[in-house]
Design goal:
Length: 416
C-alpha cells in the first residue's frame, strides 16, 4: 500500500482530488465569481520573503501560546467549515486530530456532526454562529452551545450571498434521494475509496446540519433549508453583535471576517475578545484583497485590545510565521485541513498540523528566534505596496472627530 503520509498540503490536495467525487471536491475548492480573492489569499503569501540569519541560531522552538482562553501547543487553530460528505467521521475526526496535536477548533453551524459529540472529542471547541433568524432564535442556539460546554463562541458575519463561479459550481444535492444518486452515480462510481469509507458506516452522507436547531437531537434542516432561512434573516447590526457578546457572558467571543480597521474598532467597542482578519477564504465578495494584506493595519489599530488572528491562504508553516510577523497572535486554517481530512481522515488532519509545526519550526530556526512571539516585520522581505489599509482613514477621522467633539477636561489641580 502506498504511504498514507504526505509531505505537503499540495500533495494532500492532489490526493483529495483523486479520492473525492467531483462535486464534493468542487465544494471545498469553493471561491466566488472570478476567484480573485481566493487566488490573492495564496499569491500574497508568495510575495512575502524571508530575511534569514546565518549563525547564532537557536534550536529551541517554543510554539505554545494561549488564544481565546485556551492553551494550545502551536499558534494554528482549525477554522470552522461545513465538511459535509468529505469523510464519515467529519468534524469529530477533525476535533480528535486537533486534540491529539494540542490545538483548538472552530465548529461550524453548518457542520455535519452535533456539537455535543465534537466537544466530547475536543473540549477546546468554539462554536461558530451565523446570524440566522431573530434574537430569540439566536439566544436558543447560544444556550445550546453553553449547555454543551463550548469553550468560546465565533460569530461569522462576512457573508453576502454572492453566487456563481466562472469555473462552474458543483452540483450539491438537497438530500441523498434517487435523483441525487442518479446524478451523482457517475462521479461516485469513479471514487470507490470515498464510497467505501461511507459504506463501512452503512450510512450515506445525509447533508443535514444538526447544529442549526436549538435542541440536541431535534430533526435538523438540510444544508439548503438552513441556507434559505439564513438568506431570509435580517442582516445583523453592531448592536446585535454587542448583544450576542453580552448574552454569551464571560467566555471568549470572536468576530470572524473583519477586514477593515474601522470595523475592527467597532468590534472592540462591541466587546469582542478576538477577531479573525478573514475574507471567508475568498468565498464572500470577490475582489476583497488577501486577508494577509489587511492584517498589519488592523493589528496596529486593535492588537493591544483584542486577540488578532488571521485566516485565508495558509498552506505551510512558513505562512504561519509570516502572519505572526505581521501582527497575528495565531492563524486559523481551512482548506489545508479539509484536504488532509479527505486524503486520510483524522490522521490526515494530524499530518497537516504536523506540517504546520515543522514549517514553523524551520522559520524559527532560520530567523534566529526561540519562540513564536519573537517574529517581527524585520523577519520579512515585504514588497512595496503589499499592504491594503481598508477603512483606516475613516477610522482615523472618527478618532479625530471624537477628540474635537469631547475636548479633554482640564486636569484638576489641588493648588489654588
Ligand atoms: C468549504 C468551506 C466551508 C466553509 N464553511 C464555513 C463555515 O461554515 N463557517 C465559517 O465561519 N467559515 C467557513 N468557511 C471559511 C473558513 O472558516 C476560513 O475562513 C477559510 O477557509 C480560510 O481560508 P483557507 O481555506 O484558505 O485556509 C468555509 C470555507 C470553506 C473552504
Amino acid at each position: 500500500m502506498a504511504n498514507a503520509w504526505f509531505e505537503s498540503v499540495a500533495e494532500a490536495q492532489r490526493r483529495a482530488k483523486k479520492r473525492l467525487p467531483k462535486g464534493v471536491y468542487g465544494a471545498l475548492v469553493a471561491g466566488s465569481e472570478r476567484g480573485l480573492t481566493v487566488d490573492d489569499n495564496i499569491a500574497a503569501f508568495a510575495e512575502l520573503g524571508f530575511a534569514p540569519h546565518t549563525a547564532g541560531l537557536s534550536n529551541d522552538k517554543r510554539m505554545a501560546t494561549r488564544v481565546m482562553g485556551q492553551d494550545i501547543s502551536l499558534p494554528v487553530l482549525i477554522s470552522p467549515t461545513g465538511v459535509q460528505a468529505v469523510h464519515p467521521d467529519g468534524e469529530v475526526a477533525v476535533a480528535r486530530a486537533a486534540a491529539a496535536r494540542g490545538t483548538a477548533i472552530g465548529l461550524s453551524s453548518m457542520a455535519s456532526k452535533p456539537m455535543e459529540e465534537v466537544i466530547a472529542a475536543n473540549p477546546k471547541t468554539f462554536f461558530q454562529l451565523y446570524w440566522v433568524g431573530d434574537r430569540d432564535v439566536m439566544a436558543a442556539k447560544v444556550e445550546r452551545a453553553r449547555n454543551a460546554g463550548a469553550a468560546g463562541l465565533i460569530a461569522t458575519l462576512d457573508w453576502s450571498f454572492s453566487y456563481g463561479r466562472d469555473w462552474g459550481s458543483p452540483f450539491i444535492p438537497e438530500r441523498i434521494n434517487l435523483e441525487a444518486v442518479r446524478r451523482y452515480a457517475p462521479q461516485v462510481a469513479l471514487k470507490p475509496s470515498w464510497l467505501w469509507e461511507f459504506a463501512k458506516t452503512k450510512k450515506l452522507p445525509d447533508l443535514t446540519v444538526p447544529n442549526m436547531v436549538a435542541t440536541p437531537g431535534a430533526p435538523a434542516p438540510t444544508f439548503f433549508e438552513a441556507y434559505g432561512q439564513w438568506m431570509q434573516s435580517p442582516m445583523p447590526t453592531w448592536a446585535d453583535v454587542a448583544w450576542l457578546r453580552e448574552l454569551w457572558g464571560d467566555k471568549p467571543f470572536m468576530l470572524k471576517g473583519v477586514m477593515r480597521v474601522d470595523d475592527a474598532r467597532r468590534a472592540v467597542d462591541a466587546g469582542v475578545s478576538a477577531i479573525s482578519v478573514s475574507n471567508h477564504g475568498g468565498n464572500n465578495l470577490d475582489g476583497t484583497p488577501a486577508a494577509i494584506r489587511a492584517l498589519p493595519a488592523v493589528a496596529a489599530a486593535v492588537g493591544d485590545q483584542v486577540e488578532v488572528l488571521l485566516d485565508g491562504g495558509i498552506r505551510r508553516g512558513g505562512d504561519v510565521a509570516k502572519a505572526l510577523a505581521l501582527g497575528a497572535k495565531a492563524v486559523m486554517i481551512g482548506r489545508a485541513y479539509l484536504w488532509g481530512l479527505a486524503a486520510n481522515g483524522q490522521a490526515g488532519v494530524e499530518n497537516v498540523l504536523d506540517l504546520m509545526r515543522d514549517g514553523l519550526g524551520s522559520a524559527l530556526i532560520g530567523l534566529g528566534h526561540e519562540s513564536v512571539d519573537q517574529f517581527t516585520p524585520d523577519d520579512l522581505v515585504i514588497p512595496a505596496g503589499f499592504e491594503r489599509r481598508l477603512g483606516a482613514e475613516i477610522a482615523q477621522q472618527a478618532v479625530e472627530q471624537a477628540a474635537t467633539a469631547a475636548p479633554a477636561q482640564p486636569r484638576k489641580t489641588t493648588a489654588g
